[in-house]
Specification:
InterPro entries: Cyt_c-like_dom, Cyt_c-like_dom_sf. The chain is mainly α. It is built from six helices and no strands.
Length: 125
């Protein structure tokens, strides 16, 4: 059963009150959930590996490779500059040929988990 946003906030608050180990476990669980969300919804365009025949990259990865010319990395999972707010903006609004995702497709809790997963390499997060 999915946890409502308020429930997730209470869980995180309780984990922080319980100590650093509990907070780390909660964050690890959220990142694992975010990885599953990414694998299900995003990896087909933004994951590693080859794309269509004749293309060395998947479409979303290739578009970011061309746009940024390697800095930042084209693979979203290797980026160090993403924040949960940035992830949420692009997921909810789409960009270029990337469609937006409705709350019925990626719920708020799953979106928060996805943001935690994709921002895990950001030293400021």
């Amino acid at each position: 059963m999915k946890q409502p946003v308020a429930g997730l906030a209470l869980t995180l608050t309780a984990a922080l009150a319980a100590g650093p180990a509990a907070a780390d476990a909660t964050r690890d669980a959220q990142i694992a959930r975010g990885e599953a969300v990414f694998d299900h919804n995003c990896a087909s365009c933004h994951g590693p590996g080859i794309g269509n025949p004749g293309n060395a990259f998947k479409p979303g990865t290739d578009a970011l490779r061309v746009k940024y010319e390697g800095d930042p990395p084209a693979l979203l999972t290797e980026r160090t500059d993403l924040t949960p707010d940035t992830v949420a903006f692009f997921v909810r609004n789409g960009v270029s040929i990337m469609p937006f995702f409705r709350k019925t497709e990626i719920g708020d809790d799953d979106l928060a988990a996805l943001g935690a997963y994709l921002s895990r390499n950001n030293p400021d997060q």
